[in-house]
Structure formats: structure tokens, C-alpha cells
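task queued by scheduler; priority normal; single chain, no ligands, no partner chains; default sampling; output format set to C-alpha cells
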Amino acid sequence: MFDLFDAPIIPGLAAVPDVITVIEESALIARIEALDLSPFRFQQWTGKRLTRSFGWSYDFETGRFAPTDPIPDWLFPVRAIAARFAGLEPDTLVQALVIRYDPGAGIGWHKDRPVFEHVIGISLGNDAAMRFRRRTVSGFERRTVPLAPRSVYHLSDEVRYGWEHSIAAMEVPRWSITFRSPSQKRLSPGGAPQPPRSALASASQPEQGRTV
């Protein structure tokens, strides 16, 4: 079992519980529920989770990476918590992704888009399992980290670039807020993320080892 307070099971992975209160959690869930959420779409495939991006968005149907609605004020306090946990300035987290997972929803194996660097997520509502894997000569090396409600995790360095991750499907609803910073290798002169030169790498099946 992974102890959230001990050394990480994978370099670059950090997680701690109870970064917000139960009251703050309930308020965030209510805010997410009030949004105009859309089903996640990958090419012609529609996922069970509902999402909304702020700051920057990536359209998996068209391959378009572009600015979108600004991060709303109600996300600023939790963004500050995420930034402090990751040792970053809040305004470096230029993208926020909110997700509602209905029963049966999860996220398949993937790595986040290389245009982003730090990935900080806050889990809401119910317990979840975050799974990690990387290919070895004999198959896959795997790890699993429990995500308790109101916990935060940070992916950087080895775990961010060398491992895929996924969220196991659940029988109960869950919500999450994920913040991302731009990769220093893909900053424009004005300090904003540059769209990648090519569209999403092709995948034979949705959510199988792809980059999101």
C-alpha cells in the first residue's frame, strides 16, 4: 500500500490527503455540477465522463489546441492550493480541467499532452484508484495509488514522462479538478503554450496508450 506521507513509489509522484475541507469539497462539486459539461470525445468515440476546460483546451476530434474560457474566480483558491503543493506560482497553472465521472466512467491508459509539464489533480466525492504502468522487456511494471476524496496529487519528471496512468472505472460518481502548467520547451515569446506541431498521435483504439 502506498503511504501518502512516505517516499513516492515512483520518482516525481507526490500525493497528500485532506487539502480542502468537506464543506469546500461540497461547494466545488456544486460549482462543477452547475457548469455546461460535455461528454469526452475521441475521434468518433464518446466517453462516459463529462468535462469542461478552462484556459486552454484540446479538441480530440479535430486536433485543435487553443485558448478557451478563462479560469473562473471560484477555482482560484483551489488552484493556489495545487500550486503551493507543487512548489509553483498559481499563475503558472494556465489550464484547468474539471471532470464528472458518472458510474462506470474512468480514464484509459495515457500520458498528458507534451505541451504541458506539471500535472496537479484534486480528487472529489469518492475514493478512486490511480494506476500507473511502464513497458519493460518482460511486459509492464505497474503501480496503484489510492486517491481519497479531498486529496491532491502531483505528476512531474519520471512519472510524468516515463509512465502512463489511468483511473479505474467506479460504481459511484466522482469529480476531479486538474491543473496543468505549460512545458518550458513549448512556450511562445509571450509565455503562453504553443500548439504542438502535429495533431494527436494516432492510436489504434481510443484510450489505449495515447497522449491526452
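post-processing summary
- Residues 111 and 157 are 12 Å apart (CA to CA).
- Residues 1-5, 187-191, 195-212 have pLDDT under 50 and may be disordered.
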